[in-house]
Amino acid sequence: MSDWIPDRSRLSIHVPFGLVCGIGLIGFLMVALQHWRRGTVVLGLALLVAAGLRAVIPEERAGLLAIRSRVVDILLYSGFGVVIISVAMTITGLFG
User: Fold this and answer.
1) Which residues span the domain enclosing 79?
2) pTM
3) Cystine design at 81: which of 36, 48, 56, 93 (Cβ 3.0–4.6 Å)?
4) In this structure, what DSSP letter does residue 53 have?
5) What is the DSSP letter of 67?
6) Is residue 9 part of a domain?
7) Is the Cβ–Cβ distance between 43 and 24 less than 8 Å?
8) Which residues contact 21 (CB under 8 A, 6 or more apart)?
């Protein structure tokens, strides 16, 4: 009868993914408000946070952050995060 009530442990599995999505949403909002460089850096930081969380959180608690194996996830999240931040920091011109 109480199967429909969410269990706290099941809900807490999605907290790391929600944190990364929240940071990404802030980045997209900054880009939409014409702060494209800062917003892009925040998006890269969201990927670095995802890599850090994937490295620290156990496999069974990683939730939607766990797509591939742990090593591949960490390498791809951190690699894409560093590339996005470095591209955002090196582009000059384009309205500030």
Assistant:
1) 14-92
2) 0.85
3) 48
4) H
5) S
6) no
7) yes
8) none
